[in-house]
């Protein structure tokens, strides 16, 4: 394929992806204020964690409803565009991911295609799982933060501030959930061995909690939820790396194992980690 043909292919793939994003965005804008097949609207979904707070901790009008504040004429309109196009990009991600995949795969070998497909598949599942966890802990985090004022302060959040906070939490949790998958991918690429990961496990656990504190500095509840879940996912990744290294040694018994390279002689630290074997 010539350079011109590559450029034409790229233009076609980008055009289809942009069309999918526009269609998805328009659908998301409509879904923002309308129910869909019995599902709540996007506005109701986003307001769920906020409305779960006790009435004394949130702005509650006289009719007993649950609402956020609008402080600018076009604030809600801009918010609807932002949320709608974000939701549309997520819902139609199979379309633009397929276009990206179709443009890249002709230059990959069969093994590389399988490797990349596994990464995209598991990565998507982990990102969604992280976003769902974030959505479940947002009410507890909000209650912790707005409770500092006690009776001296009345909390009234604007729509832009609240939605920015929720979307940021969903994104950060989703990205952090990709870290164990990255560990497994590096192990398959023979960059990290199970023996090395096993010897570093204390530092890795500490680093995961530090990352959780940096990603969610606003409250300890979100930090503990994210840190504990990441440690559990790291344990699963460690087991996968252990299995992969064993299979690699069976397939190539003459090649020195990663464990031998990482720890040539028994040490006290190795004995301390015997429970991981």
From TrEMBL:
GO terms for cellular component: TAT protein transport complex. GO terms for molecular function: proton motive force dependent protein transmembrane transporter activity. The chain crosses the membrane at residues 12-32, 83-104, 116-145, 165-187, 199-215, 221-241. Pfam families: TatC (PF00902). It is a multi-pass membrane protein. Its main location: membrane. It comes from the Bacteria. It is found in: Cell membrane; Membrane. Keywords: Cell membrane, Membrane, Protein transport, Translocation, Transmembrane, Transmembrane helix, Transport. Part of the twin-arginine translocation (Tat) system that transports large folded proteins containing a characteristic twin-arginine motif in their signal peptide across membranes. Together with TatB, TatC is part of a receptor directly interacting with Tat signal peptides. This is Sec-independent protein translocase protein TatC. It comes from Saccharopolyspora flava. The lineage of its organism: Bacteria, Bacillati, Actinomycetota, Actinomycetes, Pseudonocardiales. The gene is tatC.
